[in-house]
Design brief:
Length: 82
């Protein structure tokens, strides 16, 4: 497989893992908030709080993955191989 196709598949994998990461973080936040609301009878407060935390965690994961990919790309461009 040539280098262009490898880069394409690597980038597609990274983008799809970012999307999955955001969705999973939000789903975990929503279910945690709903569970706490049912347990304590607090209405939608924990739902909204943990929804916000899930969204923030999802975008933080994207930021971390993007920074990691940028560092990898810079290493590849300079040829240091570290």
């Amino acid at each position: 497989m040539n280098e262009d196709k490898k880069d394409l598949f690597r980038n597609l994998g990274m983008v799809s893992s970012m999307g999955i990461s955001v969705v999973v973080a939000i789903v975990i936040g929503v279910y945690s908030g709903l569970w706490l609301d049912r347990k304590f009878g607090t209405g939608p407060w924990f739902f909204y709080l943990f929804l916000f935390f899930g969204i923030a965690a999802g975008f933080r994961n994207v930021q971390i993955m993007t920074a990691r990919e940028i560092r990898r790309s810079e290493r590849d461009d300079t040829g240091t191989g570290k």
